[in-house]
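>> received
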Amino acid sequence: SKQYPMPKILKTVDVLINACCFKTHEYAGVTLCLKNLGIGLPSQRVVGACKFGLPHQHVAEVHVDVNYIAQKLVPRQFHIIDALYAGTWVPVAPYFLSGLIIASRDPVACDAIGTACMNLNPRNIGTTRLAAQYGLGKMEYDEIEVVGVPLEEAIIQDFPRHPYKARKWPWTPDMYGKVTNWDQYYRHPLYGVPNYPRW
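>> returned
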């Protein structure tokens, strides 16, 4: 069975506040709320630098396992995507001002809306899909109440694509997402793809 080293403080806190950046990622597809906790919570003292001790070949499952444990330990959570600036998960990649803040008590909904704002399909992100399947939150657009700026106005049509090297490996957006190529990954389900009635 899988085991994850979790911070002891999770057993004593009343609320968990999770703040993350707004980026694409060459292995996970996006790096938002679920990945932030999924990689951030397991102790570096146990799993090592860059969390290499975690089973990265099953990245979606790892993220969902850790988030499931965190929800059991701290049911009251608040998730914030700092999308004031946006970009890709590469140190030298340019960032740009997007001016968004996305927040929710539901990490799956937060990630789904964040992914849609990147003009990407949340269903193609393995972590988001698997988390919704296991009841960690809502992923479908018609199940999420969006307040503030309408989603249609928040979508960044020309969100920067990931560097060329990531596109060499069609499985990198996340195997569980069943994404066969980067062209499929970069389609948006509601805007610009007539075959998708919803995401």
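>> The chain has one domain: 8-185.
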